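Running log. JK asked me to keep both predictions on one page so they can be read side by side. First protein, sequence followed by its tokens:
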Amino acid sequence: MSLIELLQMNNITVYQCIPAYRPSPTVRIIQSLLDFNCKVLLDIEDSIQDVQQPKLNDELKAQARIAFACIVNKLPNCKFNIRINAIHSKAFPLDAELLLKFSNQIESVFIPKVESSNDLEIYCEAVQHNHRLNLIIETQKGVNNIDEILSSKYKNRIDFVFFGNYDFHLDCNIFPITEQDSFNYWEIVKPIITKVEKNKLHFGNSPYANIVDTNCLNFTLKQLNAFCKRDFAVMALHKNQSIYFNSLITEHQKSIQQAVNTNRSNVTIDLFNNNKQKGRSFAMYNDRIITPQEYLLLLKRKNG
């Protein structure tokens, strides 16, 4: 990204998605992420299933709940985000028990396959705790009903509204999947962003499965920054993606600091006088406006 693009970038929240599986190595992964600018999202839904042997799914999800408890207990000073199972699934009541048991260590709950405001009501009645909520819209019905979903009386508890690209394509029976490096993807996403932000909420982008393709991640951030007027979130499926996002965020912060230090400290009265625009109140130097307010402040300092 160019310096100008970085300076104009919105704030980004990065969620690192990790399956709640095999507690010991998962704890090590989480510990390795503590120095990065990302939030840990433990998944007991999408990544915990066997699509070839669905009859095993109940046991897999039961094991995931046990793994989640073990991971949380091993990291008592950490806050976690958790992706639960869909509201109408038979796993949800057991997930609700888990949320209440570990409520103090849960920062937010990701609710998948949200299709109506009634889904939020069912959740909030079952889980009597004011966790922050992140909704995942990933079916055609959910996309169609987004205005109704965001009219929920629980709207003030929502942080981000995520789009789930892969499940959306599965629900619509579209193959091959339209990935984020295609402008067709953004034709799907732009109306969702508009509606989310109209409700004064924040958009969360779908994860991207090619974990080594940083070109697509870079393009995605440019698109999000162009379409989102408010801060947004991204989801990483691998540590490498979080590292990449983190490097851009760090570069963004450094660029802002360097720009402030360099551009402001080098402004002088002579620089303003020699580059003042004819008939205008400001000067232009190296693609940067030197404002009349800066000139007046410099004069005050010169004159004591």
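And the second, directly underneath as requested:
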Amino acid sequence: MMKRLTMLVAVFALAATLLVPTASAQTPPEQVKLNKSIQIRTGKTAAVVSGDTAWLTVSIRAKNSVDDVRFTATLEDGSVTYPANTVDHSGPYNGYDMDKKETDYVAFSVTVPAGFERKANLGLELTATWTEDGKALTGTASVKVPVVPFNGDPFQVLTDTVAVTESDNGWVGISLTGLAPRVEGVQVRVVDPEGMDIYYPLETHTSLHGDDLLEDGETDDARFRINESLWGQTSEVSVEVSYTLD
């Protein structure tokens, strides 16, 4: 099967658990700015299909040594559950304690209600608790969850316009979200205008960053490089996505 898509491309020149003393456990944690201790590195998660349930990960990075890191979350217009081994919260994958400058992630299972007829962003509101230098602290952050409607297509393109700076060296990315159970052999290339000065990682086309498979609820990027001759211009192009529907 083959699908032709049109997009507008604008080119511009994240050990052992330290036990909190009993006295601290009886005192409510102090509210502080989360980013001073734990940086939330995910601004927008992978997309979720309207009416679907999906696991989402949020990348975190410790700016200081922190212990007993736990996250809870609420989703605007939806619901959140946690890994089976933690039940009522999500903890860092590599353990509750994080060293300074250590990167990890926390995971949440979210359910988005049906009925969305167009793309939308829902707010995933995070609350973290942790101890730092023996002091119990808490902070909050918000992450966007893109929601896409299911219209019978096997995938949806999330990118309409891309802009790159010179520091990106001409590389652009197009995000695709899987709607069907499994889409295989994804290939992406610009077909109009013909002969556009583009470098593809696979010579005649590019595929997805992770692999050439796109599963239900998965979001991945197809990347290619627009060469210097086109920098500083605004170009409207047609992008062809070919694939096999399993």
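Observation for JK regarding the second prediction: The radius of gyration is 21 Å.
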